[in-house]
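new request in #modeling-help
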Amino acid sequence: MLGLNKKDTTFLLIVIALTIATPIILQPFAEGSELAQFNGGYPDLMQKIAIFGIFAVGFNILFGLTGYLSFGHAAFLGIGSYAAVWMMKLLTMNVIPAILLAMIVSGLFAAAIGYVSLRRSGIYFSILTLAFAQMSYKMAYSVLTPLTNGETGLQLSLDDPRILDGAMEGTSLPVTNIFGIAMNSSYKLEALGRVFTFNVGFYFCALIAIIAFYVAIRLFRSPFGMMLRAVKSNQQRMTYTGLDPKPYTLAAFVISGMYAGLAGGLLAAMDPLAGADRMLWTASGEVVIMTILGGAGTLMGPVLGAGVIKYLENIFSKINETVLHGWFHWLPDGIEDVVIWVFARFTGEGWHLTLGVTFMLVVTFLPGGLVEGLKRISTRIKHGSQKRDKYDDPDPEHRPEASKHVA
Amino acid sequence: METILLQLLNGLDKGSAYALIALGLTLIFGTLGVVNFAHGAIFMIGAFCAVTLSRILNWSFETIDPEKLDFLGNPAKIKTPYVEAWFGPEFGGALIDWAVPLAILFSIPIMIAVGFAMERGLIKHFYKRPHADQILVTFGLAIVLQEVIKYFYGANPISTPAPDAFKGSFDFGAMLGFDPNMIIYPYWRLIYFGFAAVVIGAVFSFLQFTTFGMVVRAGMADRETVGLLGINIDRRFTFMFGLAAAVAGLAGVMYAPILSPNYHMGMDFLVLCFVVVVVGGMGSLPGAVAAGFLLGILESFASMNAIKSILPGIDQIIIYLVAIVILLTRPRGLMGKKGVMEE
C-alpha cells in the first residue's frame, strides 16, 4: 500500500490504530481510583507526545541515518514557532498557513546552517550546530526583539492585522482553528467509569504525525536513505565510489530541520505563543535524549522515546510526598519514611534526576535504546533462554562490523 | 588606551575560568580520549566545595544572654560559631572570613576523589565505545550531579563572599601610572587571574619537568608503545583525570565570590568551554589556554558601548561567531594537531 511493502504496511497500520486510540489507551484507570494520576489522556500531554514524536523522528533522519550528532536542533523548533505565530498575527488564525510557513522558514535556516556546519564532521559538527543554536537563542533575546518580543515571548494581541480573518470583534483573543473548528475544542465521552477526551488539536497533530511518520518510512526505505546510511558507515568508501556525500547530508539536514520546524509550528498552533527558551541548548539535548532512549536509527524508537519521556515527565512531576504517603501507608513507620524519602528524590521536583539516571543506564547497558530492549525480550520469549555455546557464531555470514557513530 | 586596558582586565577573569576548565577538558581528552560533558558539573562541585566549607566553619551553637532582650522581650539568643569558641574570636573569625581561600586546600582531595570515582566507576567502561556514547553518558551524569547538588543546596544562588581584605576595588590604573579613577578594578578578579596563571603554570611544569609528566606526555602521543614498555599507563591516566577534575574544581572554588554558585552554573560554562576547546584545537593544551583567554577578552571587548552601538547584540554572540569563523577557516582550531578527532 502506498509504495510500502507488506511488513511496513502492517507496521504503519498498527501505528495509525494506536494513534487514533491514544485517548483511550492513555486513560486506563478509572476516575477517582488511586491510580487515576497515572492517566495521561488529557489533550495537552497527548499533543506534546505527537509533536515531540515528529521532532524526534526528524532528528533521527539526521542522527540515526547519517550519524551526524546535531546539538542545536532546537533552533529550528524555535524558528518554526516564531514563524507560525507571525503568520497567525498577520494573516489568519487558521493553522495551515502558519504550519506551512514554519516549515519553509526553518527549512531555509536549516539550509544555511547546514551548508556551513556540514563542512566539518564529528564533534566539530556538534559544536558548530550548538554554536548556531546558541547564537539564535541569544539573538532572539537581544537584537531581534522587534521580531521575537525578547523575554516576554511572541504573543497574539487584539490589534494584530489578521488580514484574512477581518476585523476582530469582542475583547477576547481569537483561538487557533482549522477552517473554523477550534483547536482546543474537545468531545468528552464518559464510559466505563472513565472520561475519554477526544481533542481536535490532538487529532490534528496526530494526523500530521502519521503523515510525517509515513514520509520517514518511505525515506528510510528509499535509495536516498541507503545513501545516508552509506555516509554513516563509511564516508571514505562512498567518496571512492564516485559519490559526493555533501548533497545527501545537506538534504538530510534540511529535511530534519523542516521536521523540527513543523513540530515548532504545531506547538504554536496548539498554544499560540513562542519564546526563545525553545531554542535553548537544553531543548536540543532533550530531543537527543528522546531519540537515544527510544533507539537511534530505528523507525519506532524516536516516537517511543518522545512518548515515554513526555508521559513520565508529566506523571512524575505530579507525584509529591502526600501521594507517596498514600501508597506506602501500609508499611511500618520507620521503613515508610525511608521509602518515601527515596521515592521523593526521584519524583516531583526530582524528575530530572530520574531522567538523568535512566538515560545513563540506557546508554550504558542498552545502546540500541528501548527498541533493542523490546527486541531482546521478544527473542528471549521466542527462543527461550538457553545459553549459547561460546563458539556459536552470532554472525554466520561474517558481515563487517557496523561502524561507529560519527562524533 | 585606558578603556582598552580596562576591557582587557575585565576579560581576564572570565578568560581565566574558561582557560582552566578548557585545560581540564583537553587533559582528559588528550590522555583518555574521552569527551567529558560532565566537566562543567565538576566546576560546579568545586564552587560548592567553597560553599560547604564556609557552612562548616559557620556551624554555631546558641547561648542565651540573660542581659539582653530581643524584640519580643525574651532573652536574646546569641549564635557563636564553634571555631570562634575553640580558637578565640579573632583567629576563628579570620578562619570564617578566609573560607574561600581555605576551600582550595579543602577541595583538592575532594575533587581528586570525585575524579577518580568518575573515571573508575563510569568512564572506564566507555573507552571503546563511540564518542557519541561518551558524550551522551557524561551528559546524563552531568544532569544527575546537577540534581544532587540542587537537592542539597537548593535552587537559589548562594552568595559566598571573598575575605574582607580583598573585597571592593582599587585604582589599578593609578598604580600603573595612568590617570587616577580611570581603571578601577576589583581585587578578587586580579587574584583570580593570578591564581589561574599559577595553576596553569603548575600543570604545564608538572607535565614538562617531572618524570611522571614525561610518561604521561609519551602516553598521549602513543599509548600502546608506552604500555609495551611495561608502564602502567592506565593508572597514570586515571591520575590525570583526577588532576583535571582538581583543576576544574579549583577554578570553581575561586569563582564562587565572583558568581554566586547555583546548580546550573556548570552547564552554562560547559557549553562555552566546549567552544573554547574546539577553537583552541582538540587535544592541544596551549591551544585551550590561549583560546580561553582570547575568547574571554573578546567577549569583554564586544560588550564595550562603542562597539555595541555599531553592532548591536554583538556581545551576546561574539564567542559563537568567532568559533564558527575559526572552525571554517582553520578546521582543526588554532593549534589542533592532525588526526585528532577527525572522525
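bot summary: The radius of gyration of chain A is 23 Å.
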